[in-house]
Specification:
With 843 residues, this protein is mostly beta strands. The chain has 3 helices and 55 strands.
Length: 843
C-alpha cells in the first residue's frame, strides 16, 4: 500500500471516530434538544459546501422506507417483521415515522381501555400508539430494534417472570423426526442374543396445530428371532393460549388428577399448567435404580415406550421424563449379561391446590383403546369424563371428577389444604360402580391422601408422600376392562372371585435431605424412595431405594466422593431383586477421577477399579476393571459423544468365561421447513425447537455449541422451553475473522411443540476500503450514509467519498443516501485480495 493510501486510511479512521460520536452526542442531548445544529468549522474538510449532516440533526432520524425489525414491548421481543417508515404530512423533512401494523395491537397485551383509545393514521394502515399517555417509541435501527415502552397501567399483566399469551409464538409450518436407536450384541458361553431397537416421533406443524405419530420398532436375532414395528400412537394437539388450556385429539393416555389413567382414543380439553407462572407448576417424575452392568433402561406406559436410554453400570437416576407424564410407569432394566429386572413407578403430582378464584378443568370424550392386537382399535364402552379444581380461598381447594361409561361409572370428591410452613395436603374419596357380564353390580370406594413439603430451612423435601386404600369391589377402568375380557372369553367362572390384582393399599414416599449443607466438606445428602403395594388376592409388592452421597477430604486428597446406593424390589412375577453398591471416587486431574466400587447384586459381588474422564464437555468416557466373587475377571467401558447433530454412545462389558456384550446408541432429530432442513440434537421427542438462519453462512455456532449451521446456513436448537422467554444467541467468540454478527441475540416465547424461526443478519466476506464517486466525477457529500438492503446503516461517507465496509459479499449492492433520500447505488467488486483503495461509481 502506498504512503498516500496509508495517510488516507489514517484520516478516514480519525474522521470516522468523530462521525460515530455524532449520534452519541445526539442521544445524550435528546431530552433537551429537538434539533441540533453542527459547527462544521470544527471538521477538517476541504470543501464545506459538500457536507450533509441533516439526518443527524434530529434525534432518532430515520429515512423513509421499509425496515426489517424486531419489536420490543417493555423488553419483551416479538418476531422479526417488515416495518414501513412514512414521512408524515407536517413532518417538514424530519424523516420517517414507524407505521406499526394493526395486527401488532392485539399482541401487546394491552387492556381493553387502552385498545379503545388507539386510533390510526396513513389511511388507516398504521396504529397510533402515541394516543396512549406515556407511551415512548424509540428507533434502534442499528441493532434491528424498534422499542416501545408502555406504562404498566395500560398492560393486562404485571408479572415480570411471565410472558403474556398475546406475545407467544406458535412457530412456522414444518416437518420433524426425532429418533433413538439402540443396538446390542451379546455372546455367552451357551447363548447369543443380538438386537436393534428404535423409537421416536414423526411430526408436522401447521399454524398452532401439531400432528404427531410415535413409533417403535425392534428386531432380535440369534437364539431368539423376531421383529416388530408399529406406529403405536397418532394424535394432534394445539394450545388454546387465552384459556391456558390444551386441546388434544387422537390416541392418548387419560391424564386425570382423580380418575386412574388408561389409554383411549378421543378428545381432551384440559388446563395446561405450563402456561401458568412458574410458581404454579408441578414437577416431573424421576426413575432411579442400580444397573449391574451397562444396561438399557426402558420406561413404558400401557405398552408404549416413552423413554429409553443406555446407562453405565452403577446407580442411575432418570430425570428426562416429561412433566405431563402421570400414572403408573413400567421400568425394564435389560443388563448386558442377559438378565432383566422390572419394577413399577407410580407418579403423582403434589397435592391438588389451585389459586383462589380459579377453576382448573380436564374434560375427555372417547373410548378405551388398549388390550387389542391393533393399537388403533377402540375397545370398551364410550365414556365422558371430567375433573376440576376450584380455589375456594387462599389456602383451600375443592376438587372432584366423574366418569360416565354406561357399564362403568365412577365419581370422586376431594379437598386440598395449604398448610404453609407445614407443607400441603389433599384427601379424596372415589366411588366406582361396574356391571360385569353375568355378575351382579360391583361397587366400591377408594380413599387417597397426599402430602408434599419443601423444608428450605432444613435443606430437605418430601417431594411426594401418598397413601391409598381401595375396597375389594373398587375398580379402575383398566381393571374393569380386564375383568370384562376374561369373563367374555370364559377364562374364569362367573363367580364373585372375579378379579385379579385387585389393589388394596399403596404407600409411596419420595424424599431427600442434606445434612450440614452450609459446609461443603461435611455435607451429606440422602435420597429415599419407598413403595409398598398390597392386593386383595395376591402377595404384596415392595420397592425400597436409598442413596447417600458424601464428600470428604482424606489427607492430601480433596473432594473425595463417597456414594452408597441400595435398592430392593419384590414383585409377584419376579424373584426378589436386591442391589447394593458402595463407591469411592477421587479427582486425579482436571475433570478426571479414579475410584473403586464394590457391588452386590442378588448375592454376586463385583469389585471394580474405575477411571472417568469428563475433561472435554462433548466427549466423556469411563473404564473399569475388576473381579467377581467367583474369581472371574470383569472389564467394562463406556463412551459418549455429543455433537450439534446428535448424541452417540458406545459401551462394552465382558466377564471372563461367561459373556461379552457390546452396545451402541444414537439419538438425534431432523427438522425441515420452507427455510431449509437440518439435523440436530433431540432428547424431548416432538418437542419445541428453534430453527436459525444465517443466510447461507455455514459453521455459525449457537447457544454454546448446541447447534451449528450447516452448509446451507441453517441449524436447529432443540429442546427449547415451552411458554418461557428463551434466548437464541450466536457464540460470537467462535466466529471466524471474516464473519460479523449484526445482532447476536434474539428472544422469543414459543408454544408447546412449535418450530420457531429466527433469521440472523450475518456479514461474511471481505473488507473493503473504497472511494465513492458520482457519474460526473464528484463525491457524495460528507456525512452521507451507506445502507444495506435491510435498511441497516453500515458506513458514513468521509471526505473524498471514502468509505470502509466489512463482511462484504462479492457483487453485493448498497444504497448511498443523503438529503433524506436514497440517491444512488454502489456495487462491490467480485473479489478483493488486499486492502488497497478501490473506486466505486454510485449509479
Amino acid at each position: 500500500m502506498s504512503v498516500a493510501t496509508s495517510n488516507s486510511v489514517r484520516k478516514h479512521y480519525l474522521k470516522k471516530a468523530f462521525m460515530l460520536c455524532v449520534p452519541c452526542l445526539l442521544v445524550m442531548g435528546n431530552n433537551a434538544l429537538a434539533e441540533t445544529e453542527f459547527n462544521i468549522d470544527a471538521l477538517d474538510v476541504d470543501e464545506r459546501t459538500k457536507i450533509d449532516l441533516s439526518q443527524f440533526a434530529d434525534a432518532g432520524y430515520i429515512m423513509p422506507g421499509d425496515y426489517y425489525l424486531e419489536i420490543e414491548v417493555n423488553k419483551n421481543k416479538l418476531p422479526l417483521q417488515k416495518i414501513p417508515f412514512y414521512e408524515v404530512e407536517d413532518g417538514k423533512g424530519k424523516g420517517g415515522v414507524a407505521c406499526l401494523p394493526l395486527d401488532l395491537v392485539p399482541r401487546m397485551a394491552l387492556t381493553d381501555e387502552a385498545i379503545a383509545k388507539i386510533d390510526t393514521w396513513h389511511q388507516g394502515q398504521c396504529a397510533n400508539l402515541l394516543a396512549l399517555d406515556g407511551v415512548v417509541i424509540s428507533n434502534d435501527i442499528g441493532n434491528g430494534l424498534l422499542r416501545i415502552a408502555v406504562p404498566q397501567a395500560w398492560m393486562k399483566y404485571s408479572d415480570p417472570n411471565w410472558i403474556p399469551p398475546e406475545q407467544w409464538d406458535v412457530g412456522i409450518t414444518g416437518l420433524m423426526l426425532d429418533y433413538n436407536i439402540n443396538a446390542q450384541v451379546n455372546e455367552g458361553s451357551d447363548y447369543a442374543n443380538n438386537n436393534i431397537s428404535s423409537y421416536g416421533t414423526l411430526g408436522a406443524n401447521y399454524g398452532a396445530w401439531r400432528l404427531r405419530g410415535d413409533y417403535q420398532a425392534s428386531s432380535y436375532w440369534g437364539d431368539d428371532e423376531r421383529s416388530s414395528a408399529e406406529l403405536n400412537r397418532i394424535y394432534a394437539y394445539r394450545p388454546l393460549s387465552h384459556m391456558a388450556a390444551k386441546l388434544t385429539v387422537g390416541e392418548q393416555q387419560l391424564n386425570s388428577q382423580l380418575i386412574d389413567g388408561f389409554r383411549y382414543t378421543g378428545v381432551n380439553l384440559a388446563n395446561d399448567e405450563r402456561m401458568l407462572p412458574p410458581s404454579l407448576q408441578g414437577y416431573a417424575p424421576e426413575v432411579s435404580g442400580i444397573a449391574k452392568t451397562n444396561a438399557k433402561v426402558t420406561v413404558s406406559q400401557s405398552g408404549r415406550v416413552i423413554y429409553e436410554t443406555n446407562v453405565p453400570a452403577g446407580p442411575f437416576r432418570l430425570r428426562g421424563l416429561d412433566s405431563s407424564v402421570r400414572g403408573r410407569l413400567e421400568v425394564r432394566v435389560a443388563e448386558q449379561d442377559g438378565s432383566v429386572h422390572s419394577f413399577q413407578v407410580d407418579t403423582a403430582t403434589v397435592p391438588y391446590l389451585t389459586r383462589p378464584g380459579y377453576v382448573r378443568y380436564n374434560l375427555s370424550v372417547g373410548a378405551p383403546s388398549e388390550r387389542r392386537n391393533s393399537t388403533h382399535d377402540v375397545h370398551g364402552p364410550g365414556f365422558v369424563t371430567g375433573d376440576f379444581s376450584w380455589g375456594v380461598a387462599n389456602s383451600w381447594s375443592l376438587y372432584g371428577g366423574s366418569m360416565v361409561a354406561g357399564e362403568y361409572n365412577s365419581m370422586g370428591l376431594g379437598i386440598g389444604r395449604d398448610l404453609y410452613a407445614f407443607g400441603a395436603v389433599s384427601a379424596d374419596l372415589t366411588q366406582s360402580i361396574a356391571k360385569l357380564p353375568s355378575l351382579s353390580t360391583k361397587s366400591g370406594q377408594s380413599f387417597r391422601l397426599n402430602y408434599a413439603k419443601q423444608f428450605d430451612e432444613y435443606n430437605s423435601a418430601i417431594s411426594f408422600a401418598g397413601y391409598r386404600f381401595s375396597q375389594h369391589d373398587f375398580m379402575t377402568m383398566s381393571q374393569f376392562l380386564n375383568n370384562k375380557d376374561r369373563l367374555e372369553r370364559n377364562e374364569s367362572a362367573a363367580s364373585d372371585d372375579y378379579k385379579t390384582w385387585g389393589d388394596k393399599e399403596l404407600y409411596t414416599i419420595t424424599a431427600n435431605k442434606t445434612f450440614w449443607a452450609d459446609d461443603a466438606a461435611k455435607a451429606l445428602t440422602v435420597y429415599l424412595d419407598y413403595t409398598h403395594r398390597t392386593y386383595w388376592d395376591h402377595e404384596a409388592e415392595n420397592r425400597y431405594g436409598l442413596s447417600i452421597n458424601k464428600s470428604v477430604n482424606i489427607g492430601t486428597f480433596k473432594n473425595v466422593s463417597l456414594y452408597l446406593s441400595a435398592y430392593k424390589t419384590k414383585t409377584e412375577n419376579y424373584e426378589d431383586d436386591k442391589s447394593i453398591m458402595l463407591s469411592v471416587t477421587m479427582p486425579i486431574g482436571d475433570r478426571k477421577s479414579g475410584g473403586y466400587s464394590v457391588q452386590s447384586s442378588n448375592g454376586k459381588v463385583t469389585h471394580l477399579a474405575t477411571y472417568q474422564d469428563y475433561s472435554r464437555p462433548d466427549d466423556t468416557y469411563q473404564l473399569g476393571a475388576g473381579v467377581q466373587s467367583n474369581g472371574h475377571a470383569v472389564a467394562r467401558g463406556y463412551y459418549s459423544h455429543n455433537s450439534d447433530i446428535g448424541t452417540v454412545s458406545l459401551n462394552a462389558y465382558s466377564v471372563q468365561s461367561e459373556y461379552t456384550s457390546l452396545g451402541a446408541s444414537m439419538r438425534g432429530g431432523l427438522t425441515a421447513t420452507e427455510h431449509g432442513a437440518a439435523l440436530h440434537q433431540a432428547s424431548r421427542r416432538g418437542g419445541t425447537r428453534m430453527m436459525v438462519d444465517t443466510d447461507k453462512v455455514p459453521d455459525v455456532s449457537f447457544n454454546n455449541g448446541r447447534a451449528v449451521t450447516n452448509r446451507f446456513g441453517v441449524a436447529v436448537i432443540s429442546d427449547m422451553s415451552d411458554y418461557r422467554k428463551t434466548d437464541t444467541r450466536i457464540d460470537v467468540d467462535q466466529l471466524s475473522d471474516d464473519i460479523d454478527a449484526m445482532n447476536a441475540i434474539k428472544q422469543g416465547t414459543l408454544t408447546e411443540g412449535a418450530i420457531g424461526y429466527n433469521a440472523f443478519e450475518i456479514a461474511q466476506g471481505f473488507k473493503l476500503l473504497a472511494s465513492v464517486t458520482l457519474p460526473d466525477g464528484a463525491n457524495p457529500p460528507f456525512g452521507a450514509t451507506v445502507v444495506k438492503e435491510s435498511g441497516r446503516v453500515i458506513s458514513v461517507v468521509d471526505e473524498d467519498g471514502l468509505i470502509y465496509l466489512t463482511g462484504v459479499k462479492p457483487d453485493e449492492s448498497f444504497d448511498v443516501s443523503w438529503g433524506g433520500a436514497r440517491q444512488c447505488k454502489i456495487v462491490a467488486p467480485h473479489e478483493v485480495t488486499d486492502l488497497s483503495m478501490k473506486t466505486l461509481t454510485c449509479k
